[in-house]
Design a protein that fits this description.
With about 250 residues, this protein is of the alpha/beta class. The chain has a single domain (about 1-250), classed as Rossmann fold (3-Layer(aba) Sandwich). The protein has helices at about 40-50, 70-80, 95-110, 115-130, 150-160, 180-190, 230-240, 240-250; strands at about 1-10, 15-25, 30-35, 55-60, 65, 80-85, 90-95, 140, 165-170, 195-200, 215-220, 225-230. The strands form three sheets. The chain has a six-stranded mixed beta sheet, sandwiched between helices. Belongs to the ABC transporter superfamily. Ycf16 family. GO terms for molecular function: ATP binding; ATP hydrolysis activity. This is Fe-S cluster assembly ATP-binding protein. Keywords: ATP-binding, Nucleotide-binding.
Length: about 250
């Protein structure tokens, strides 16, 4: 589904990613871990199409299409979703209007008619029930006055409504208490199918207790320096990153 080859990315002429290669297939969950400043969020932003990054080398393909030639909006229409580390507040735009517009823009890009209101409301109710969300969320302005946990849960609600092919979760677990973490994980596990894939960026092994990844990658100094199973995440939780840094230095 996603194929990244030898990706080099800079910000203001400062190299951040220094040769990332990664393949994600349908049905897989990949987790990326690493110390602060290693390039995790840069990687997610570049895949999603955020501007302000200079791609100096390498390629990114999504289902055979060259992503680097496409805008963020075009990538979203192909089925790429990014859950933000710090969701933006948008006063005056209700959650309902936001999700309705997003769904119908995606449908328009595929040549489909807008989703009928009755069908949309049914889907909204189902997804809100899945995530234990109160219906009062729907009339609130997007993320305005939301707690950290509410913002992250709202991101997963958007994911559940849009049903992307590739969902990138950038530290969705940061700031969540254990109950919110379980709800978010339940949403991801319920939405997982053989036809979609997840890329989960996290600092903490605890999320991976609830969402079991097929692969764990360690990103350090702009490169993937180690790949393993969930056991690798457990080792990082226990020993930190110093042993990884020592291995890389050898």
């Amino acid at each position: 589904m996603l194929k990244i080859k030898n990706l080099h990315v800079s910000v203001d002429d400062t190299p951040i990613l220094k040769g990332i290669s990664l393949e994600i297939k349908k049905g897989e969950i990949h987790a990326i871990m690493g110390p602060n400043g290693s390039g995790k969020s840069t990687l997610s932003n570049v895949i999603a199409g955020k501007e302000d990054y200079q791609i100096t080398q390498g390629t990114i393909e999504f289902e055979g299409k060259d992503l680097l030639e496409l805008s963020a909006e075009e990538r979203a229409h192909l089925g790429i979703f990014l859950s933000f580390q710090y969701p933006v507040e948008i006063p005056g735009v209700s959650v309902t209007n936001f999700i309705k517009t997003a769904i119908n823009e995606n449908r328009k890009a595929k040549g489909l008619e807008p989703m009928p209101a009755k069908e949309l409301l049914k889907l909204i109710r189902e997804r809100m029930e899945l995530l234990n969300m109160d219906k009062s969320f729907l009339s609130r302005s997007l993320n305005e006055g939301f707690s950290g946990g509410e913002k992250k849960r709202n991101e997963i609600f958007q994911l559940s409504m849009l049903q992307p092919k590739l969902a990138i979760l950038d530290e969705t677990d940061s700031g969540l208490d254990i109950d919110a973490l379980r709800i978010v994980a339940k949403g991801v596990n319920t939405l997982r199918t053989p036809e979609n894939a997840f890329l989960i960026i996290t600092h903490y092994q605890r999320l991976l207790e609830y969402i079991v990844p097929d692969f764990v990658h360690v990103l350090y100094n702009g490169k993937i320096v180690k790949t393993g199973s969930k056991d690798l995440a457990l080792a990082l939780e226990e020993k930190g990153y110093d042993w990884i840094k020592e291995e890389v230095a050898i």
